[in-house]
Specification:
Distance between the termini: 41 Å
Structural class: alpha/beta
Oligomer: single chain
Radius of gyration: 21 Å
Number of strands: 19
Largest sheet: 6 strands, mixed
Strand order of the largest sheet: 5-8-11-14-16-17
Length: 317
Amino acid sequence: MATCVENCRIKAMLNCPSFNPTRSKLEANSFFTFCDAAIDEEEEEVVEDEVWAELQEEARSDVEHEVILQKYYFDVVLSHHSLESALSAHLASKLAIPFVMPSSVLQGLFYSTFVKDVEIQRAVRADLRAARDRDPACAKMVHCFLYYKGFLALEAHRVAHRAWVERRMAVALLLQSRVSEVFAVDIHPGARIGEGVLLDHATGVVIGETAVVGDNVSLLHNVTLGGTGKTGGDRHPKIGKGVLVGAGTQILGNVRIGEGAKVGAGSVVLKEVPERTTAVGNPAKLVGGMDNPVRMEGMAGLIMEQTSWSDYKKGGV
């Protein structure tokens, strides 16, 4: 199913579901201030977007079975012409501050960032697939899009991070604060997060300023990627690709968690965890010991097996 990549300022406004011709000039100008930076009046490019097409089809299927959801699904999903447009409106409605920060202004901020950043566009789609493929409770991507606060918090962070990189610290910190208040997920806008990331349940996740989270990582609820005190500089964990971090885990300091590793629930990690090994306990220790740790054949963040050791074998990979 082909979708339009929005390039025209006027079309962006008219296609925005929250657009109201009677809104104040100040509000309209605020929307354009954010959108104009990213939207050029060039010929529209038509691209194939399988994720958006599948998400819309899932929405139609839900509406067929639950008629009472018809208006909600239409307003949030089916009335939009792209994933970027729908996600911008959805996030804005969640994070708006009544009488202070209207949803239309936030929608413009989200939308302008999404349409100009191809890396974020790719990451959003990878995050949706990650939830569907790794979370047994997620039957459809549209459910993740509508209801999973881990996904929504993560996509809002991507916009906050872009603002942080562009030295728009005040805007970035506003988004961090609102995400923390609304979704109970506190990610510093300076943190760097890869694509295909799953924040499963997400409540209580805290990620510090200099933390790095690689692609295809899965974090459960109440995970902290924090510092060890008042030391400045590069002070937060570096999580490699394909890592699984269990619920209630604390990883503290500038320590590296190797690719494909697993950290058991409730662990406190203060030292490096080699790739494709498992660390458990407080303080965390490697299963099999430092000299001959048990290693996995697969990537823990994709396997999502949190208790069984059946996927492990002795020796190298």
